[in-house]
């Protein structure tokens, strides 16, 4: 089954990691960003799903609810959400019948898990946007918000009225680490730098205006964490053997 923009979104009722049952048709009157993700506990999903939590207030300004959905069972989603620091929007389990909803949306892969796919559903329950994304890349939240502004001009106007543009100069000089709070490689990098007495400035890419965009510019559109700015030398990711000679000279 291949869905098209303009069609009604197939309705569903699924359990969530919040111990609540979610029925899509009950959400009429709100825009819905429905994010199919392949599997819990995997690296790209572990960046994508918390990014919606970090930007929850931005989606709320656009009158939009976020739903995550995968073929994982509820206990796994609960444990994973806890490991990410807590996810307050529903992560839905399409575990049984296995992948039934993913199949209805045309995004169940032959391997038994879903594509990394985004569906934007408008307030009347119709599909306004479909993005079957590269499964190895995290979709851009800003691109998703651009879509929402386009399909719901009224919400975009309210967002503009309530949002005060903030200009923040990103830090420069020494070791600057662009991170997210839930990134395991970020944690590992910070432990390493502390153990080697390397001073650094940490930038949370989702809470610091302009940081996410800067990291994407440095990494050809990809959201790679951690990304280091070491006196203007950009190092994506953290590989200890490569980092050591660059960072060691900053030891105190």
Characteristic key phrases:
single chain, 252 residues, alpha/beta, Glutaredoxin, 2 domains, 5-stranded mixed β-sheet, 4-stranded mixed β-sheet, 9 helices, 11 strands
Please describe what this structure looks like:
Helices cover 32% and strands 21% of the residues. With 252 residues, the chain is an alpha/beta fold. The protein has 2 domains: 13-162, Glutaredoxin, CATH 3.40.30; 175-250, Glutaredoxin. Helix 7 (184-195) links the parallel strand 8 and strand 9. It has helices at 45-54, 56-61, 74-83, 100-104, 141-151, 153-162, 184-195, 211-218, 240-247; strands at 13-15, 21-23, 31-36, 64-70, 91-93, 116-121, 127-133, 175-179, 201-204, 227-230, 233-236. The model has no long low-confidence stretch (mean pLDDT 90). The chain is built from 9 helices and 11 strands. The protein has a 5-stranded mixed sheet with strand order 5-4-3-6-7. Helix 5 crosses helix 6.
TL;DR?
With 252 residues, the chain is an alpha/beta fold. The chain is built from nine helices and eleven strands.
Itemize the secondary structure elements and their pairings:
Layout (H helix, E strand, L loop, with lengths): L12 E3 L5 E3 L7 E6 L8 H10 L1 H6 L2 E7 L3 H10 L7 E3 L6 H5 L11 E6 L5 E7 L7 H11 L1 H10 L12 E5 L4 H12 L5 E4 L6 H8 L8 E4 L2 E4 L3 H8 L5
Parallel strand pairs: 3-4, 4-5, 8-9
Antiparallel strand pairs: 1-2, 3-6, 6-7, 8-10, 10-11
Helix pairs in contact: 5-6
CATH class of the largest domain: Alpha Beta
As a percent range, the share of strand residues is 15-25%
State the major sheet: 5 strands, mixed
Q: What is the terminal separation in angstroms? A: 60 Å
Going by CATH, what is the homologous superfamily of the largest domain? Answer: Glutaredoxin
Order of adjacent strands in the largest pleated sheet:
5-4-3-6-7
Mean pLDDT reading: 90
Relative helix content: 25-40%
Number of strands: 11
How many discrete domains?
A: 2
What is the SS-derived class? Answer: alpha/beta
CATH architecture of the largest domain: 3-Layer(aba) Sandwich
Report the C-alpha radius of gyration, rounded: 20 Å
Envelope shape: globular
* Quaternary structure state of the chains depicted: single chain
């Amino acid at each position: 089954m291949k869905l098209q923009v303009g069609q009604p979104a197939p309705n569903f009722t699924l359990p969530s990691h919040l111990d609540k049952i979610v029925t899509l048709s009950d959400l009429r009157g709100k825009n819905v960003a429905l994010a199919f993700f392949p599997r819990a506990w995997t690296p790209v999903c572990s960046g994508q799903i918390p990014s919606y939590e970090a930007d929850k207030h931005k989606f709320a300004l656009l009158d939009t609810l976020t739903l995550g959905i995968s073929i994982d069972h509820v206990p796994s989603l609960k444990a994973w959400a806890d490991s990410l620091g807590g996810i307050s929007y529903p992560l839905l389990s399409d575990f049984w019948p296995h992948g039934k909803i993913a199949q209805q949306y045309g995004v169940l892969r032959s391997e038994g898990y879903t594509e990394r796919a985004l569906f934007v559903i408008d307030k009347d329950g119709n599909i306004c946007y479909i993005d079957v994304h590269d499964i190895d890349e995290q979709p851009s939240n800003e691109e998703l918000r651009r879509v929402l502004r386009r399909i719901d001009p009224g919400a975009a106007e309210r967002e503009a009225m309530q949002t005060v543009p903030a200009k923040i100069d990103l830090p420069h000089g020494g070791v600057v680490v662009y991170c997210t709070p839930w990134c395991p490689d970020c944690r590992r990098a910070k432990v390493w730098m502390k153990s080697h007495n390397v001073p650094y400035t940490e930038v949370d890419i989702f809470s610091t205006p302009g940081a996410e965009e800067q990291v994407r510019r440095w990494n050809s559109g990809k959201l790679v964490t951690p990304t280091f700015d070491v006196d203007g030398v950009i190092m994506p990711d953290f590989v200890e053997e490569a980092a050591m000679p660059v960072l060691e000279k900053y030891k105190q």
